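User: Hello! My lab partner asked me to get a predicted holo structure for this protein. The small molecule is magnesium ion, SMILES included with the sequence. Please write out the structure tokens.
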Amino acid sequence: MKNDKKLSELGEFGLISRIASGVSSSGSVITGIGDDAAVTVSTPGMQLVTSTDMLLEDVHFRRCWHDPYRLGRKSLAVSISDIAAMGAHPRWALLSLAIPADLPLTFLDDFTSGFLAMAAEHGVALIGGDTCSSRSGLAISVTIMGEQFPNYILRRSGAKPGDEIWTTGSLGDAALGLKLLEVDSDFPGSEGQVGCGDKVNQYLCSRLLDPSPRVLVGLALAESGLVSSMIDISDGILADFGHIAEQSGVGGCLRLDDLPFSPAFRLIGDKLPLFPYQLSLTGGEDYELCFTASPESRGEIAECTKKCGVEATPVGIVTSFPEISVVRSDGTSYGLQTKGFNHFT
Ligand SMILES: [Mg+2]
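Assistant: Hello! Below are the structure tokens for the protein in complex with magnesium ion.
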């Protein structure tokens, strides 16, 4: 495929064919891209689980930080993460793009390659979408559909007082990666370097730029029958557990000293007097799973997640009093400066 062509020469239908040419066939897709609507086959007995996300240039990503291939991957990853959070199997995706006229075609080719690579990794078929021109930056909208048997689907509303609060993986890496990219002058160790120089920085930045949705562990937890509620951590565990608490009519107490940090986060975060806990509590875009389960299931939960190659850590307890607190190991409460990322504040 020639890459020196311009988007205006290709036109909308040319662009759609260009994207469609990279899509591989899937047994569940009877009619894919190219007709008025797609036709898919559902798994008998399963229910449809649907979610949509928008990524806007200079709101969710910056083109100077985000290479198009990883932007394509992430555009789908954040949606797959929502399906993972329901304990469902991701199946079909729709991709809509509002594209600035001057966007190089090579950018769109690399974006599409990244999107389709993420799709292939999780067995997702791209079945349609829309394209139009944008007068102010690139806008990406992804709708994803997944499936699961009704009794396995996990919601935010099932947490009970006395349940333990868990998180998969480590917290705060993506937020620290963002700090590194911003090269904040207040940020010790960032002077004179552009974010992703060494391996530690690269790891932290890749957690922001190329997140891995926790599909397998989400499915395993859902199908274990041990989990009472689940959500993916896109806005920081404090805000996202807050959604579980609100929907379940409960509260929670998070233990500051049990929050899991990655080795890379420790290496850099430990140099920071204030940031580490704030970042791990309120930093966005980790795309880990936060879930609740009875304390009696602790051993089984740990075994279940380990089988999927993912560490999970109990980090708190669900309370009947509808408030969220954070305590240190000596029992004193930790003052919170912010509650997590919120688009409208
Ligand atoms: Mg979510």
